[in-house]
Amino acid sequence: MTSSRPKLQRAARTFAWVLIDIVLLLISLALAQIVRYSVNGNYAFFPNSIRLAPAMVAITLLVFQGFDMYRTMWQYATASDVLRIAVAALVSAVLTYAFSLVANLFVKPDNLFLLHRMVYLLHWLMSLALVGGSRLLYRMLVTRERVSLLRSSRKDEAQRVMVVGAGWTGANIVHEIQRGSYGNCIPVVVVDDDRIRTGSQLSGVPVARGSGNILKLASDYRVDEIIIAIATPKGDLKPLIEKCMATGCRVRRVNPLQDVKGENSAAQAVVRDININDLLGRPEEQLDMAPVAEFFRGKTVLITGGGGSIGSELCRKLLPLEPARIVLYDVSENYMYDLNSELRLQYGAQLKEKLILCVGSVRDEQRLDEVFGKYKPHVVLHAAAHKHVPLMEDCPEQAVKNNVFGTWLTAQTAVKHQVQRFVLISTDKAVNPTNVMGATKRLAEMIIEALNAQTETEFTAVRFGNVLGSHGSVVPLFEQQIRSGGPVTLTHPDIIRYFMTIPEAASLVLQAASIARGGELFVLDMGQPVKIRELAERMIQLYAPREGRKVEIVYVGLRPGEKLYEELLLAGEGIAKTENEKIFIAKPEVFSPETLQNMLSRLQSCIDENGDMLKCLHELVPTFREADAVNSAVGKTAV
What we know:
seven-stranded mixed sheet, Rossmann fold, alpha/beta, nine-stranded mixed sheet
């Protein structure tokens, strides 16, 4: 009984529309006759139109059914639906005219079903106006009823929304809210800086001028939520976002990567919550991946550290580029398993042949040889590393074994199996390092630079700074502290860092890998450095509960090996541009085979003899300095 009720409702609705269309079609035919013959008063053709009317109605209803006009939800009609009505009415008029010509051949006397050709054209226009107008009227009535219901709702039942931006995107957001696409919400004001739009109304919603007045307007209109409807910003949206956040309202924005211009923009506009990337002013730019796809297409790519933040994102970015297969190599099976489960939902059974999971350490020479020998990779992306600075300060031998000898063994295995290209994922902490992790990554760069001059494999390195949201990043730590009520722990009020989003970092690494020729040290454009204190303040603004006690910031002092600022270039490396404005090439120092072997022998002896590894690293990396000395010098310079 319950299951048949919706079917009965649909049948009743279809029957109602059919009856309405029959009446409107007959009226349109009569009006066409009247308009055509109103000048000379000749109504001789009226009997013909009466004889033709049943066939005309039947033909039109069948055409309308073929164009799915009785299955369309007209309360959500768009311009494309209006175009569909116009085409359906035109097809009906042409078929009706064709029926008149055919019927006239078999019926005597002649011309019993034939009308003047102008009548068929006028009938098309009249039916388009009446049938289309009926759908438009229905849509307007339903929308008006929806808006009326929302306006009469209590505040706790309907969220009052401010829309920032009265252009194409803002207009469509207002329409979608009024249709109920965003839940129990009602638009109460639209804000725009354009003087021409000020004082007008957008679908009945007043347009106020001045993004600088957002705080006052939010109070005057009792706003609960703000949607920033600017899809293609001309400048930095960070100041506007901060003004909106200062109101205490929930703030969302239209995804800037969506093209929301044109008639179908309502369907394309994706609204999401403000995130830390927006507050940092670090946009996720769409990069041209076509040349990258050309390089990786049909190749087998092996990613060490494949389950980590960068390794897993490299995998996500590579899969659509149609490589022959991707081999993930990681000592942690958990991260790889989670990534595989995620990607299986997206790619299904075809992922089984595309993605290979291999558990193993970059310190295990036998396992590396086994995997390289079996899958014959063309490209190796070496992301495996120990990267947590404080932990490596306590375990320098482990950092050397993994970051230095792990890189050496993986690179040697790549040479043995004739890998075409080997890309080391490095870090800005390798520049004038003040910690063990940075020093070991600098040694890894030296290995890559030396091997490129000795072998056929093209060795290159990519150097960049911190990645937002990666494992070990301050961002997830701060978010966890804020959501638990605080305090947020910072090491120093003046510490600054470069940040990049995970997707952007992975895309740029792949681009650098595709243009490498061997021997380059690619440096990624990290944008402007960010004060960690400001990052914490913005995250508190974003994630702290609207009500409750204030989240405090507590300074706990610099960690071992941590310096106040990071650099991307060593003295004398220089820099050159590439075709990609966000990728640069540094000129690294090239080390001889003897220097490389002496370095590795010295490190191995230190490990075997349980020597002073920290002292050994200082001797092998001349730019390795104590963090306290560097930070003290920075402080004196600042004073």
